[in-house]
Automatic annotation (TrEMBL):
One of its GO terms (cellular component) is mitochondrial small ribosomal subunit. Keywords: Ribonucleoprotein, Ribosomal protein. Residues 194-313 form the Small ribosomal subunit protein mS35 mitochondrial conserved domain. Residues 42-57 have a biased composition (Polar residues). Residues 22-72 are annotated as: Disordered. InterPro entries: Ribosomal_mS35_mit, Ribosomal_mS35_mt. It comes from Diatrype stigma. This is 37S ribosomal protein S24, mitochondrial. Pfam families: MRP-S28 (PF10213). The gene is RSM24.
Length: 379
């Protein structure tokens, strides 16, 4: 009995088909009237089982729910059965749609189509704008633009452009400074003070840099110059000071030069340079080690040789007398030649040569005669 039932069960299982759900028909015009996306129902396809097999069928894996997809016509595909609420909603829309006149139905379909096209064009424009901004960055603001076009009045062809106004503003600024230089700067002469050379108590010369009120990173730089001889040191201490200064000492001018710009304010840099000079003076006065075995290195400085006028070429009274004697002798010789007629007069010779007629040879005046017949050609 068991052997007869088993083949029958296999045959029934192989030819069994899945039932097709009965869904109500959906009106395409009803969905368009409500300006909602049209819905296309897809009936599930019948799947066949493997026939004549004694193996147990494996359950299919659960598929992930797909989102509603929209095709080119604006219809939404739903790969799931509709619920009762959705079916009731569709029936209600269909009933309202049937009550409308044909003209209203056509108008609703036309409006829905136009809305769909407008939505598609807007989405395409957004994609193009994003694609262009990604490559050309044309949606970004230009921070280096000459004029600021925000909050500006519209141009009504009754005024010059903004760039021209900026140019006039530059001219006004130039003229303002020109007036200051012409009328107010001469008044500064009243505040002038006579120059007083520095005393022995002021051996340091500081130099500052100002940019007329504008911020500049080099404005805090301070430079100091001094001569080791002006510091009240002995010769041995001065030599040690020069060795300690290293490349900051100029052996040609005998002036040391140092600078500092590591602090924010000029007063701080000046104070730091003063402390450095005080420490150098203390070390130069220290008698424990005077660096006597170390020579003064001057390889960092290039001595420039300035050409001097030779002493032999200088004008002295003896040389002046010698030149006068030579000139007198030359004048006497020329005078003797002039009396004897041996002195050549250049302007007279040139005039004589120009007044003399020039003879032209006869062969130059004669015109050559061309032969009338050509000579026979040799073969």
């Amino acid at each position: 009995m068991a052997s007869t039932v088993q083949p029958l069960r296999v045959c029934l299982r192989a030819y069994r088909r899945a039932p097709v759900p009965q869904l109500p028909q959906q009106s395409r015009a009803a969905a368009a009237a409500a300006a909602a996306p049209r819905i296309r129902l897809q009936t599930p396809t019948a799947t066949t089982r493997r026939g004549f097999s004694t193996t147990q069928p494996h359950p299919a894996k659960a598929k992930k729910p797909k989102l509603d997809e929209e095709d080119a016509d604006g219809e939404v595909k739903i790969d799931r059965p509709l619920t009762e609420e959705e079916l009731k909603w569709i029936d209600g829309i269909k009933a309202k749609w049937d009550k409308l006149p044909p003209a209203a139905q056509n108008q609703f379909e036309k409006d829905a189509y136009e809305l769909n096209q407008a939505r598609r064009s807007a989405m395409a424009m957004d994609k193009d704008a994003l694609r262009g901004a990604k490559f050309w960055s044309h949606l970004e603001e230009d921070t280096e633009f000459i004029t600021d076009e925000q909050n500006e009045d519209p141009f009504d062809e009754d005024d010059i452009m903004a760039m021209a106004h900026h140019k006039f503003e530059e001219f006004r600024e130039y003229r303002e400074y020109a007036r200051l230089a012409a009328w107010e700067m001469p008044l500064l002469s009243k505040l002038a003070r006579p120059f007083e050379p520095p005393t022995e108590e002021e051996p340091l010369r500081f130099r500052y840099t100002s940019y007329m009120g504008e911020f500049h990173p080099a404005e805090s730089k301070v430079v100091v110059e001094f001569c080791p001889k002006d510091l009240g040191l002995t010769e041995a201490q001065q030599l040690k000071m020069k060795k300690l200064l290293g490349p900051r000492y100029n052996p040609e001018t005998e002036i040391a030069k140092m600078s500092c710009e590591q602090f924010e304010h000029q007063a701080q840099n000046k104070r730091y340079l003063g402390d450095v000079i005080n420490s150098l003076i203390e070390k130069a006065k220290d008698p424990t080690d005077m660096f006597e075995d170390i020579p003064l290195y001057t390889g960092h400085h290039t001595f420039k040789v300035k050409p001097k006028f030779p002493k032999e070429w200088r004008m002295t009274e003896e040389r002046r007398k010698y030149i006068d004697e030579v000139r007198e002798k030359a004048l006497l010789i020329d005078k003797e030649k002039e009396e004897q007629g041996l002195l050549v007069d250049g302007p007279a010779r040139i005039k004589q040569y120009l007044e003399k007629p020039v003879a032209v040879p006869e062969h130059v005046l004669q015109r050559p005669v061309r032969p009338t017949s050509r000579p026979a050609r040799r073969i």
